[in-house]
Amino acid sequence: MEKFVTLNNYQVSQELYEFVNQDVLPGTGLKSDQFWKDFEYTIRSFVPENEQLLTQRKKLQEQIDTWHKASKGSFNINQYKTFLEDIGYIESQTEDFTINTKNIDEEMALQAGPQLVVPLTNARYALNAANARWGSLYDALYGTNIISEEDGADIQNQYNPVRGDKVIATAKDYLDRAVPLKDASHKDVDAYTIVNGQLSAALSNGETTGLNDPSQFIGFQGDADNATAFLLKNNHLHLEIQIDYDDPIGKTDKAGVKDILVESAITTIIDCEDSVTAVDAEDKVQVYRNWLGLMKGDLSETFTKDGKTVTRTLNPDRTYQDPHGSHFSLSGRSLMLIRNVGHLMTTDAVIDENGKEIPEGLLDGIMTSLIAKHDLLQNGTYQNSSEGSIYIVKPKMHGSKEVAFTNEFFSKVEDMLDLDRHTLKVGVMDEERRTSLNLENCIREVKDRVVFINTGFLDRTGDEIHTSMEAGPMIRKKDMKSSQWLDSYEKSNVKAGLDSGFQNRAQIGKGMWAMPDLMKEMMEQKIGHLKAGANTAWVPSPTAATLHALHYHQVDIGGVQEQLKGETDHYVDKMLQIPIVENPAWSNEDIQQELDNNAQGILGYVVRWVEQGVGSSKVPDINDVALMEDRATLRISSQHMANWLHHGICSKDQVEETLKRMAKVVDKQNEGDPNYRAMSDNYDQSVAFQAARDLVFKGAEQPNGYTEPILHRRRQEVKSLIATKK
């Protein structure tokens, strides 16, 4: 039973209260009594508007549903657009403006590069992500399918020199593209030295050359006459050629190169939202405690790997000497952003005088900002933001009024915590249809604190399906990526950012590569995000970050954005093209295949979320291909099945049968997990199976198609059962 502390009119979880008082407030300059008074006043001030915004979402959805029902068989895009404008779903266009955000770290403003998203509930993963600022290119190539296993280059239990030679050759090919030598290849180098403050390369043919652009050499480690590393820079990103003739790899290389270190995950979103399973006060404190550890630099995690005990901590900064003898350092860690939850969910960590839970997003905003104040005051071992900013990603906002609400709330939090105005920066997730259609207005509302907009195909598709639930049956899920609305949405996002002055000032981001084991395919496709004008994109692992970073050496993002600036195309009409099929002609086999795919994905993710509290992980799909899954992927699959069920493409009995059959598939895929509880042993008693079932059969009635209400309720049920057994 949760214990509470009574503060004025609010009940605060004792665990949260003690954590804040004992671990967070000391060192912030804030006193406990005043903090909790301000806390209650701030929450109370914003709860009514939070509720009004959610009521408006529901009202708009009801109006849209009614319109589609009345327009069955006579849909007209112009009438539809006029209707959406009349009800305020499409807002009036704003005048031109330019964002005016100050004190932005270079990682957000100038450096284009990969971005990780990591669940804050898992300290080890969070540390790995924060430390992914630098990654071994040799390791990334050796351990992935970038390098073919043909001709004896297979991955073995021990180091395979044949594969190693391919790795080294491939890595030096990348060097030739990013930091080319004049009239030579890095493969031809016998030795790297520093001559007259420049990088010099002695070649196998006896000649000497240097970099095609000498300014790319910016520093070294060790002695100038015997450097152990050479630091190079291209497109604002760093590469480090590491030298060690005694190293097992270095001694096989004529130049003594033991590895090439790549500046990789420039920024990382530390996530309190889609990838975590924080459903009660206990979970929220765990999330906040890990965030405190990251901000103070003392987070650690001890685990066993390959039979050895390993303790993971944050990496220190990397130090160098420039060619003129001055010393400097580069951050050893990714710049960390914190993603709060959206406006929808409430939390039992704090209860008001009427016994109601408070909005979880308001709690997150205060607590994560309070904790990050330690970074601003330099209370920890390391510094996250050198510019004195706190970066908060705010997801799942619908339209400019919700963004304005966030802006107003952030101002109040700044006052409450004695922070300068606009210390709290905001990243606006462009993942809801009403935000996509009104993105310029949304940006305008936070023009003095915005640092980030990001497309999110997965959530955006889920919202597309739910918003137009009554319009008709949706196209197959695999066809969504080639649909007109999606292409227009992606282009519109970039255009809105550039028109608002994001270039060299803020991030324009793209979504996740969801297949962490298919790196060759990622390298072939994900470069398209850069060519579309995005200066960051999500990757599923530190290894993927190291590989994706190579794209940013190949493409000059500034040049791409310069070409795209001033584009006159408008995308609203194209984004309103609803991806439905007027006269479905799918075969029974096509329908069943779609149902199988969706059901297996839902069950594979939900069973880990509900039963084990795992919010994001590699989940094998129906073809046993590992996919990174979170609530956004779940939202698409559950909404898609709900839509087809709603329009009679499939029957309730067919869906029931599919779910049960796919539960057996998922059980089989997880049979090696000793903590796994099979769903098919007893469907009625399996909380996970019932959660998956609810997501489909109750999907049409969920607010905006979100999965959180059902998942949270079912996870709480499992935790209660576990507590009872104890």
TrEMBL record:
Record-listed acetyl-CoA binding positions: 117, 124-125, 275, 312, 540
Domain Malate synthase C-terminal span(s) in chain numbering: 590-694
Residue numbers annotated as active site: 339, 630
Domain Malate synthase N-terminal, first and last residues per copy: 16-68
Catalytic activity: glyoxylate + acetyl-CoA + H2O = (S)-malate + CoA + H(+)
Malate synthase G alpha-beta insertion domain residues: 159-234
Entry's localization field: Cytoplasm
Recorded family membership: Belongs to the malate synthase family. GlcB subfamily.
Oligomer and partners: Monomer.
Name of this protein: Malate synthase G
Species: Lentibacillus halophilus
Species lineage: Bacteria, Bacillati, Bacillota, Bacilli, Bacillales
Gene assigned in the entry: glcB
